[in-house]
UniProtKB/TrEMBL annotation:
InterPro entries attached to this UniProt entry: Ankyrin_rpt, Ankyrin_rpt-contain_sf, SAM/pointed_sf
Keyword list, A-Z: ANK repeat, Membrane, Repeat, Transmembrane, Transmembrane helix
Alphabetized PROSITE patterns for the sequence: ANK_REP_REGION, ANK_REPEAT
The keyword Protease belongs to this UniProt entry's keyword annotation: no
Region (Disordered): 1-24
Record-linked Pfam families: Ank_2 (PF12796)
Coiled-coil intervals: none
Organism: Mythimna separata
Residues passing through the membrane, by range: 449-469
Feature: compositional bias, Acidic residues: 13-22
Protein name (Swiss-Prot/TrEMBL): Ankyrin repeat, SAM and basic leucine zipper domain-containing protein 1
Ranges occupied by ANK repeats: 77-109, 148-180, 181-213
């Protein structure tokens, strides 16, 4: 009977080793190991059922007979028996396991028994408090964090465990640890609407002016959720003034003078009425009265620096950061050249008197703001020019700056031409129109006296002229 050996790929020799090509028998499946895994999973499931139902005797039997009295056995999920008991808030079972030597600092996937206990939001406060107390007595660590940077204190705050939070605070846990979002314990209390816990944290010296990675304060979170109690507590301890109500005289446009703020007094326009709108958009309207009392114009406001902000009363770091970010966003917005040179583009269009007045006022405003933006850009450029100085000529940064500078010069030239055209238009309008009615005012006493004197001089001059004319005429007749 012929014996057939397994073949080789074409062109290969049967003398080559099987190990080089994988032609060898596969190891048999380890069914015992598979059965062992199933057994571990079944042990954990049975333990969970016994723990959830609070059956202490069943837990004791499983630990003794199926875990060999090893209460720190790593179960199929990676958790220990103690972590399951803490998570399901079975304080009697937890006490038994700790008495049997369960590790209170056992870690699995960055979780510890006290973290699993503080994560339970449905169990009774008494059960959770008892578990936390037992774990603390056995020396569990309190300032540990999980994969998200959250501490047992944060988890307890999120579940509203006031007694547990108070106990942790009494033990001097770190209340300024930040999670992955940059939140401290104060943020957790504000986000989960826990006013009593917030008061506890403040009493233990929690910092209220911190901001998270998204530049939000705890007060900002509370305002987003409209948690009135949290807002009231935070504002009281931050000593913030009452919300400012905009005054009408800051905002209203009533006469043509409002197109040119400051023109009545013979000064350049200041546009200070724009400042309250900008502060409102930055959520800093509470500072409006303070800034308006200084009398600063819009350009000064747009060019504020860190020291100026502190001098104006922006004492909190997050407020200064918010103002700086707001001003930077304002200066970074895109401009269309047609917005400034529009009258030059629309030269064929007929404008009314009011149209000219409105257009000229709008252009004046835009050029005013553009000037402030240019000053801001130059100031910021000076801060980084030493870094740019060492860039090679063909570097992307230099190329981008050169291109932007050329475009800027072109736009400035367009603005200059548009300004010249506006001057011509304004002169024509002024020459061909009477004085506006609202500029006509009642004569003062000085004006009346001056008028009488002028009339008297005029009458005397006419009389003198007539007298001289009569003398000349008589002389001619006699001749």
């Amino acid at each position: 009977m012929a014996v057939y050996l397994p073949g080789r790929p074409g062109g290969e020799s049967d003398s080559d080793s099987d190990e080089d090509y994988g032609f060898y028998e596969k190891p048999p499946k380890n069914y015992y190991q598979h059965q062992l895994q199933n057994e571990k999973k079944k042990v954990e499931m049975d333990l969970q059922d016994a723990i959830i139902n609070g059956h202490l005797r069943e837990v004791q039997e499983i630990v003794t007979s199926r875990l060999g009295n090893n209460v720190n056995e790593r179960l199929d999920s990676g958790w220990s028996v103690l972590m399951h008991a803490c998570f399901h808030a079975q304080d009697t079972i937890v006490k038994y396991l700790l008495w049997q030597g369960a590790d209170p600092n056992y870690r699995s996937d960055s979780m510890t028994p006290i973290m699993s206990a503080c994560s339970n939001s449905s169990a009774s406060n008494e059960a959770i408090y008892n578990i936390v107390t037992d774990l603390i007595e056995k020396g569990c660590k309190l300032n540990c964090i999980d994969n998200y940077g959250q501490t047992p204190l944060m988890k307890a705050i999120g579940c509203g465990r006031e007694d547990v939070v108070q106990k942790l605070l009494d033990l001097k846990v770190n209340i300024e640890i930040r999670d992955m979002q940059g939140w401290t314990a104060i943020f957790w209390a504000a986000h989960h609407n826990q006013p009593e816990i917030l008061k506890m944290l403040i009493a233990h010296g929690a910092r209220l002016t911190e901001v998270d990675k998204y530049n939000r304060s705890a007060l900002t979170l509370a305002e987003l959720h409209e948690y009135e109690d949290i807002i009231e507590i935070l504002k009281r301890h931050l000593q913030l003034p009452e919300p400012y109500v905009e005054q009408e005289h800051y905002m209203d446009l009533s006469t043509w003078h409002d197109f040119y703020p400051g023109i009545k007094k013979g000064r350049r326009p200041d546009y200070k009425s724009e400042i309250p709108h900008l502060l409102y958009g930055m959520n800093l309207e509470s500072h409006t009265p303070t800034i308006m009392k200084t009398g600063m114009d819009l350009r000064t406001f747009l060019l504020l620096e860190e020291k100026d902000m502190a001098d104006l009363g922006f004492k909190l770091p997050y407020e200064r950061l918010r103002l700086r970010s707001g001003l930077r966003s304002f200066h970074k917005r895109n401009w269309k050249i047609s917005a400034v040179v529009g009258m030059g583009i629309q030269k064929a269009q007929n404008f009314s008197m009011l149209g000219y007045l409105s257009a000229v006022g709008s252009h004046l405003h835009q050029i005013y703001v553009l000037e402030a933006t240019l000053q801001y850009a130059l100031r910021e450029y000076k801060k980084v020019q030493d870094q740019i100085k060492f860039e090679p000529p063909d570097s992307p940064i230099r190329i981008k700056l050169d291109s932007a500078a050329q475009k800027l010069f072109q736009n400035i030239e367009k603005i200059r031409k548009a300004s010249d055209r506006v001057k011509i238009i304004v002169k024509k309008v002024a020459d061909s129109n009477p004085k506006p009615a609202d500029l006509i005012r009642e004569d003062t006493l000085g004006d009346i006296i001056a008028g009488y004197i002028t009339e008297a001089v005029f009458v005397a001059s006419i009389g003198l002229l007539i007298y001289n004319a009569k003398q000349i005429l008589s002389f001619i007749v006699r001749k």
